[in-house]
Write a structure and sequence with these properties.
The model has no long low-confidence stretch (mean pLDDT 79). The chain has 3 domains: 105 residues, Beta-Lactamase; 86 residues; 192 residues, Heat Shock Protein 90 (2-Layer Sandwich), CATH 3.30.565. The chain has 390 residues and is α+β, with helices and mostly antiparallel strands. A hairpin with a 5-residue loop joins strand 1 and strand 2. Helix 4 packs antiparallel against helix 5 and helix 8 runs antiparallel to helix 9.
């Protein structure tokens, strides 16, 4: 025959048996250990209510009147050293014809104090700062020799290129290409390492000016991009402006004359932002669209905005490139993450995987949020909402 009393006494769970007056008539081993009592007899006879805080014995009296119900209660138990946050299940039992209450407790890990949270946060911030400093130092140490090597390779190429064999020309061209790529990666790393420490200067800035400053370096870098079979890409950039009941323009960048440019600029609003950092955001978004344009030799990229109201716009950059799977929507904004697929494997200049992370971090400093909508094979659209500065 199973000795249930012995099982109760040896149970590792904190359990208490109370009489109808709320006094302890028995406890489990787990209850003694939780309350730091060596002997069971030291607890027997005590009023259970005296062991804790925030414990209303009337809650237990409720279940003593109805043997069919149980009740969950929260309270604090005290031992010699700690106050223990506890959740308990209470139910009424019959023991030798007498009504007793069984309380089965579970300790809840005590919440950290604000001071503990502050100290942990401070240590975490110090660790992060150390990481940024290391990244910045490594980046500088890599950039200086890389730039010097590229300068010497370019000088060598200028002097002897025509006298080289086809194989030698190929290897020299590959060396220059990879050195340029290394320098770009190092610069990306340097920019990323400064994100947490850079100061922001918010001013009223014309949106067209930001786009214009971002577009020039992108078009220059875009000249180096090729399809997987070595064909050069010719990007078609469009300005897309939408305002319900007013205008809906789609203007090709290469076909803008002076008159159209003057008219175009007047349609762009001002926004409050850090000009240099917002230019970095637009640059990264445009070049991301260029980089992931696939094997299309004439990729289209739309840059524009639409009015959501008199005071708000939705800025967007839309392409007809490879597209992004829905499962990767969040991941692409994580540091160093890159989408892996048969199509992306063909891309030679993938970068360090920091471009979109930089975009997200900068926009968050502006209280803006970046969103993406995409479909594999049908391109992507990145957008964020901004307030108009009047």
């Amino acid at each position: 025959m199973v000795d249930y009393k012995k099982l109760f006494l040896m149970a590792p769970e904190p359990m208490f048996l109370l009489d109808d007056k709320g006094k302890i008539i028995n406890v489990s081993k787990g209850a003694r250990l939780m309350l730091n009592y060596d002997k069971r007899k030291d607890l027997i006879g005590k009023a259970f209510q005296q062991l804790g805080q925030n414990l209303d014995f009337h809650q237990i009296e409720k279940i003593q009147k109805n043997i069919k119900i149980s009740l969950n209660i929260d309270f604090f138990l005290k031992n010699e050293e700690d106050i223990i946050k506890t959740v308990a299940n209470c139910r009424t039992l019959k023991d030798d014809g007498k009504t007793v209450s069984l309380i089965i407790c579970k300790q809840i890990k005590e919440l950290k104090t604000l001071k503990e949270i502050y100290e942990e946060r401070k240590k975490l911030d110090e660790t992060h700062q150390a990481i940024w400093n290391i990244m910045d130092a490594i980046s500088h140490d890599l950039l200086t020799p890389s730039t010097a090597i590229l300068t010497h390779v370019n000088s060598l190429s200028f002097e002897i290129y025509d006298n080289l064999s086809d194989d030698q020309k190929f290897y020299l061209d590959q060396s220059k290409k990879n050195l340029n790529r290394l320098i770009i990666l190092v610069k990306d790393l340097m920019e990323f390492s400064k994100l947490e420490t850079e100061k922001y200067s918010f001013k009223k800035v014309h949106l067209y000016e930001i786009i214009d400053n971002a577009l020039s370096p992108c078009l220059e870098r875009g000249k180096e991009l090729k399809t997987s079979d070595g064909k050069k890409k010719k990007f078609k950039i469009y300005y897309c402006l939408k305002k319900p009941g007013d205008f809906d323009d789609k203007i090709e960048f290469d076909k803008i004359d002076y008159e159209k440019l003057v008219e175009l600029k007047q349609k762009f609003p001002n926004i409050y932002c850090d000009k240099e950092k917002m230019t970095r955001v637009i640059t990264n978004l445009i070049f991301n669209s260029m980089r992931y344009s696939g094997d299309n030799t004439n990729p289209n990229i739309q840059i524009g905005f639409e009015y959501l109201s008199e005071n708000n716009i939705r800025f967007f950059i839309k392409d007809d490139g490879l597209g992004i799977a829905k499962k990767d929507y969040r991941k692409i904004f994580e540091p160093f993450y890159q989408v892996h697929s048969l199509e992306t494997k063909k891309i030679q200049d993938k970068g360090a995987g920091l471009g979109l992370t930089t975009v997200k971090r900068i926009l968050e400093k502006h209280k803006f949020h970046i969103f993406v909508e995409s479909k594999i094979g049908n391109g992507s659209e990145f957008y964020f909402n901004a307030s108009i500065a009047k």
